[in-house]
Amino acid sequence: MTATGRAPKQRAGRQTTAQAIVLRRRDFRESSRIVTCITREHGKITGLAKGAHRPDSPLLGRIDFLNELTASFSEDRGGLRILVRAKLTRERRALRTPKRFLAAGHIAWLVDVASMEGRADPELFDLLLGGLNLLERCPLATIPQVVLGLELRHLQAVGALPAFDSCAECGVALDDQAFRQEDTMGLVCRQHAGLPRFPVPGSAMHLLRTLRATSGRDWPSLEVGSETRSAATLTALWLAAAVEQRAPFRHLIFAAN
Ligand SMILES: [Zn+2]
Q1: What spacing in Å lies between the alpha carbon of 168 and ligand 1's midpoint?
Q2: pTM
Q3: Three-class DSSP category at 132
Q4: Which domains does the chain show, CATH number per domain?
């Protein structure tokens, strides 16, 4: 019921209206586009933006990558939904700087791969929203550490962040010396590191712990140097494993009979 006491129109009631961030779009036929957005309440939603290329389209210039919209989609009838209306609420102009755009695109890609059509994952949505806010205004030189922090949060959100404080084999605390394994995601102590050993520098471990324990808004003010790169080698392995887990049929193909 609305404030005036009248029930909203039935047709509008079945539409889905939500705050949405544009993740992807592609051309469809001559003048339309297919747009994939992420929403907090409904997960990913893909819809056809009819005639979005036409110069008189109300959607023109609104459904660009990473724009924030109040978007209304037609009722879900199992087929492709229609993007009925889109009101632009935020255009992230600051992200048009190449370095910021690259970082934002990377985080959006991670969230895109990890989220599903029609299944809400508020944590991932908030991660993207908060990440874009950070990447818009952090000093350019701090982008790598901010992205590293976002990668850690992402791994945490999808349940793919290994416990990197203790040896995966014996549980001993890994303070300064840790080694990564070829075949497992967790880190191990010197005793349990197979040969050849792949040591993880203590500074990289320290950075990962600090980022994990610090609020995102404080990431840009952390004093860091080249350890960002060695820490990023670790998150790259963990992310690759997380993405592979998300490939829905892969484990079926390689499963032992
Ligand atoms: Zn051990």
Answers
A1: 7
A2: 0.88
A3: helix
A4: 10-92 (2.40.50.140), 138-247 (no CATH)
